[in-house]
C-alpha cells in the first residue's frame, strides 16, 4: 500500500492560491480527526506545519502579484518546502494505517482518495468585479464586509488600505478567505479604511472590486 495507491497526490499541479486553500482545509480536517489529532507522532509534519506553509506561500504569492510576475524564487522555495511536508505527512498516514490495521487514518484528512473526482476549481471565475459592502459593527472598532458569491471561486483575496488609497501599493494583503462575509476587528476608530476583494480560481484571478471605504466607529 503506497501513497499513490491511496491518495490523489496532485499538489504539485496546483497553483499557489489553490494550494493555499488545500493547506488550510487539510490542517482543519487533521486537527478535527480523532486519530491524527491525538495519536500522530510529533516528528511527522501536520496541521501546524501546513498553516505555517500557508502563511509563507500567501505572503510570497502576494509579493509576486505586486511585481506582476507568475512566480519568484522565494515563492518556488516556499511551495517546495510545503510539498515536502505534505508528502511526508501523506506517507506517515499510510504507514500508520498499515501498522495499526486501521483505515480510519486514510479518511477525512484533506487528501482526495484515489479514484474519486479531484477537487479543482476549473470553471472560469466571473469576469465582472465583485460588489463589496462594508458596515460598522457588530462591536466597536469592527467592520463587517460582505461581497458577491462567485460559484467558480476557490477562495477570495481581501486587501485593506488604511486611509485613502493612492494606487495598488497602498493596499496590504489581508488573506485568502472561503466565505463571503468577514468581521475585521482591532481597527482604529475615527479613521478611514478602504477594502477590495477579488475571486481566486483555478490558475486565474478575477478583477478587483471597486474599493469600499468606511470611517470606523
Features:
single chain, 217 residues, alpha+beta, Immunoglobulin-like, 2 domains, 3-stranded antiparallel β-sheet, 5 helices, 8 strands, 34% helix, 20% strand, Fibronectin type III domain-containing protein, FN3_dom, FN3_sf, Ig-like_fold
How does this structure look, described?
The chain has 217 residues and is α+β, with helices and mostly antiparallel strands. The chain has 2 domains: 3-106, no CATH class; 132-215, Immunoglobulins (Immunoglobulin-like), CATH 2.60.40.10. Helices cover 34% and strands 20% of the residues. The strands form 2 sheets. Strands 3, 4, 6, 7 and 8 form a 5-stranded antiparallel sheet that branches. It has a 3-stranded antiparallel sheet with strand order 1-2-5, with no helix packed on it. Helix 2 packs antiparallel against helix 4 and helix 4 (47-67) runs antiparallel to helix 5. The longest helix is centred in the middle third of the chain and has 28 residues, at 73-100. InterPro entries: FN3_dom, FN3_sf, Ig-like_fold.
